[in-house]
Amino acid sequence: MTAPLPDLTPAQRTEIELLARGKQDRSRTLRELGYSETPEAAHALLLRLGLWPESRTPYADRLHATTVPLNLPVPPFPDEPRLDLTHLEAWAIDDEGNRDPDDAVGSEALPGGATRLWVHVADVAALVPPDSPLDEAARSRGATLYLPDSTTGMLPDALVEQAGLGLHGTSPALSVSLDLDAEGNADAVDVQLTTVRVTRLSYTQAQQRLDAGDPAFVALARLARASRALRESEGAISIDLPEVRLKADEHGVTITPTPKPEMRFVVQECMTLAGWGAAIFADDNGIPVPFATQDHPTREVRGEGLSAHWARRRTLARTRFQQSPGPHHGMGLDVYVQVTSPMRRYLDLVVHQQLRAFLAGADPMPGRVMASHIAQAALNADATRQSERLSRRHHTLRHVAAHPEREWTAIVVDRRGPQATLLIPELALDLQLSSSAPLGSEVRVVLEGVTLPTLGVRARIV
Fold first, then answer.
1. Residue limits of the RNB domain (predicted)?
2. Which residue of 64, 79, 328, 378 has the lowest C-beta tally within 10 Å?
3. SS3 at position 229
4. How far apart are CA 386 and CA 367, in angstroms?
C-alpha cells in the first residue's frame, strides 16, 4: 500500500528542494517522514508530490555546473596587423542549428601538386586575454554546458555573435595552415592571425557539394582520406559507436540518430590536422601549451562490429595534458593540442592565448601559470561533462518510460561472467543485466521500471 503524501509547508518544500539540488546535506523534514536524507530520496518525493515535473534535472546543480548565462561586457577586436585571406573560400560546417561557429576549413592548390589546408578558428583570445574578467569567468565554467533542454555558454552570447565565423562579412581568426602532399605528409605548418571570409553550411549542405563533385570539397575529402590513412598506419584507433541527437522540454523527448555523412569525417580530420599543426608550431617555437598525450592502447582489438568498437574504446588510456610534447597514440600522432573550440572549451582557449601572445610579440604565460589555469578549469569542465551525461540519461529514460510496451533492439557488447552489457543503438543507451546471450548477438528487450531519481531501469529480454 502506498503511503499517503505528506502536506508540506513552503519552508519544508524549500528544504527538500535544496537537498535534491545538492545545496545542502541534510533534511530534517525527510528524516521525520522516515525517508533517507539523500538527493535521490528528495527528488523522488518531489516527483510524487507533483512539485517537480519529470523534465526537471538536478545534476548541474549537484555538480556545481552553472546554468546561468554569462553577461560580462565584451571588448572590440584590437586594431592590429592580420594576413588578409578574404580572397580564399572557407566554410564553417556544423550540425543544423549550431549557434557557436568557431572553426572553418578551406584549401588552396600549391605549385608542384601540393595542397595547403587552412583551418581557421575564431580569434577568441583577442577578446579574452589571460586573467581578464572574461577569462576568469570562462575558467570557472571550464566548458560550455550542453543539456538536452538548454545550452549555457562558457562565454557570453555577445562574444559568440562578435567572433563567430560566418556571422559577419569577414571575421578575425587564428589560422593554422598545413602544406600537404598527396599522401598526407606535411611539408610545412604555420599559425597566423588572419582576416577570413566564411560561409556557413550544414553537414547535409556540405555533403551535397561533395556529391555534386564541387572541386573544393573533393579536394578537402581527398586530403582527409590521405591523412586518415597515414594516421592509421601509425596506429590510430577508429571507434564508431551510435550517436543520437536528444532534445527535451516539459512536453517530451525526441531522439534521432546523428547523421554521419562523409563530410562529418572530413571536418573532423581537418580539425585533427589543425591540432597537429598547432602543436608542431608551438614545439618549434618553444611556446608553453598543454600538449595532449595518450599512452598505447592496453591491447589490440580486431573486428568492426559494435562489440569490437565497444571493447576498443575500453583499451584507450585517459588523455593527459602536459607542458612537454609527447605522442598521442590513439590518434596516431607524434604531437597534438586541442585548438579548434576556444568558444566552448577553456583548454583550447589557453592554447589560443599562448599562440596569440607569441604571434603578437608578447610573452606567453609561464608554464606554471598556464598549468594552474588549466587545473582549475579541468575540475569545472569535468563537472560540466558529468552533468551532460547524467542529464542525457535522465531524458533518455523519460523517453523510454513514455513507450512502456515497446521492444528495443540491443547488441551484447560486453560480458563479465553472467552479466552482459547491452547497447541499444537507437537510444545510444547501455545497460547491464543477467543474460547468456553471446557477445555480439542481437536481442530484443523491453525496458520497464524506470526510476528517474536513481536513473535506473530494468531490462527484460523478450
1. 82-361
2. 79
3. helix
4. 28
Report the distance separating Cα 246 and Cα 462, nearest Å.
26
Domain CATH code at residue 33: 1.10.10.10
Those residues with Cβ within 8 angstroms of residue 361's Cβ, 6 or more apart along the chain or in another chain: none
Query: What cell numbers appear for 203 in the block?
Result: 553537414
Alpha helix ranges (H) inside 131-214: 133-141, 157-163, 203-211
Q: How far apart, in whole angstroms, are the C-alpha atoms of residue 217 and residue 107?
A: 9
Residues of the chain short of pLDDT 70, as ranges, are 1-4
CA distance 146 to 127: 23
Answer yes or no: do 143 and 261 share one domain. Answer: yes
Q: Tens digit of pLDDT for each residue in 135-187? A: 999 999 999 999 999 999 999 999 999 999 999 999 999 999 999 988 888 98
Helix boundaries (H) for 302-366? 306-314, 346-359
* Pair (297, 411) in one structural domain: no
| Backbone φ and ψ of 65, nearest 5° | -95, 120
Which residues constitute the domain of residue 115? 83-388
Report if residue 5 sits inside a domain. no
Residue 96: the pLDDT is 84
Which tens digits make up the pLDDT trace of 73-115? 999 999 999 999 999 999 999 998 788 899 999 999 998 889 9
Count up the domains in the chain and report the number: 3
227 φ/ψ sector (left φ>0, alpha ψ -120 to 50, else beta): alpha
Q: Which of 340, 357, 388 is the last residue of a domain?
A: 388
Which residues are CB-neighbours of 312 under 8 A, at least 6 positions away?
Answer: 237, 238, 239, 297, 301
Q: How far is 436 from 125, CA to CA, in rounded Å?
A: 54
Residues 41 and 113 in one domain: no
CATH number where 426 lies: 2.40.50.140
- If asked whether residues 122 and 187 sit together in one domain, one would say yes
Q: What is the pLDDT of residue 1?
A: 42
Burial class (CB in 10 A: 0-12, 13-18, 19+), 71: exposed
